[in-house]
Design a protein that fits this description.
It contains 5 helices and 2 strands; from the N terminus they run H-E-H-H-H-E-H. By secondary structure, the chain is mainly alpha-helical. It has one domain. It has a two-stranded antiparallel sheet with strand order 1-2. The radius of gyration is 15 Å and the shape is globular.
């Protein structure tokens, strides 16, 4: 596959993940307490499609995901939160664990983490789009 095809494929996948992530985030933002029903589990799985590979990358594990470039997303988040990176990455790992629970509430800080992850994914989409438009 040519570079153009590779960028186009990655852009398509990343933009679809971003759309699903944003929709899931909007859905759970309206919930005071999150209890895993089939609908909630579906929304959480869309968040975890991004968060699982990111948390694997933070822990230094090779991610099994071929869907996103977790290293790029981690680098974007790390650059934006370099001063508090050690704490920040621990908070991402705790958030991943919480999202796998059967019942939980999300704090304002955890919603901010989710927003930061969405912003990093959006930045990755913008970067891929820019690379596509250069060709």
């Amino acid at each position: 596959m040519s570079d153009l095809g590779n960028f186009a494929s990655r852009f398509n996948i990343s933009s679809e993940l971003l759309k699903e992530f944003d929709e899931a985030l909007l859905f759970i933002r309206g919930k005071k307490e999150i209890v895993k029903t089939p609908e909630v589990a579906d929304k959480l799985s869309k968040l975890l499609k991004v968060i699982n590979p990111v948390s694997d990358g933070i822990r230094g594990k090779l991610s099994e995901s071929t869907v996103i470039s977790e290293r790029t997303i981690i680098n974007i988040i790390k650059e934006r939160h370099s001063k508090e990176w050690p704490t920040y990455k621990e908070n991402i790992l705790k958030l991943k664990s919480k999202l796998n629970s059967d019942k939980f509430q999300l704090s304002q800080e955890e919603f901010q983490l989710l927003n930061d992850i969405a912003d990093a994914l959006d930045a990755e989409c913008a970067n891929l789009f820019h690379r596509l438009s250069e060709r």
